[in-house]
């Protein structure tokens, strides 16, 4: 009986910790379009870069920075291959 109570208490603590961490935003980013996503999707990266070039006021935004970061990574890899 004591073991059941301890397991129940542990389960409640785990659930409360999970809810607390989710409400604080701790954990994996929910943003699908990060730098790695753009790295693996070249056509989307090109479209985002074109959009960012046409809208300079949004160039400091998350998706523009992610696309530029991915393009920088691609350019660096291409430079080392040559």
Structural features, described:
- With 82 residues, this protein is mainly α.
- The chain folds into 2 domains: 1-30; 31-82.
- The chain is built from 4 helices and no strands.
- It has helices at residues 2-24, 35-40, 42-54, 62-81.
- Helix 3 (42-54) crosses helix 4 (62-81).
- The longest helix has 23 residues, at 2-24.
- The protein is elongated and about 70 Å long.
- The N and C termini lie far apart (69 Å).
- The model has no long low-confidence stretch (mean pLDDT 84).
User: What Rg is obtained from the alpha carbons, in whole angstroms?
Assistant: 21 Å
| Number of structural units classed as domains | 2
- Helix/sheet category: mainly alpha
In percent terms, what proportion of residues is strand? Answer: under 5%
Q: Gap between N and C termini, in Å?
A: 69 Å
Mean pLDDT: 84
Condensed summary:
The protein contains four helices and no strands. The protein is mainly alpha-helical.
Question: Key terms for this structure?
Answer:
elongated; mainly alpha; 4 helices; 2 domains; 82 residues
Strand-helix topology:
Blueprint: H1 2-24, H2 35-40, H3 42-54, H4 62-81
């Amino acid at each position: 009986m004591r073991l059941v109570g301890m397991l129940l208490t542990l389960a409640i603590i785990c659930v409360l910790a999970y809810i607390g961490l989710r409400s604080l935003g701790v954990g994996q980013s929910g943003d699908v379009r990060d730098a790695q996503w753009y790295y693996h999707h070249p056509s989307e990266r090109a479209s985002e870069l074109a959009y960012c070039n046409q809208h300079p006021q949004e160039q400091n935004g998350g998706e523009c920075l992610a696309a530029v970061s991915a393009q920088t990574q691609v350019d660096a890899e291409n430079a080392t291959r040559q």
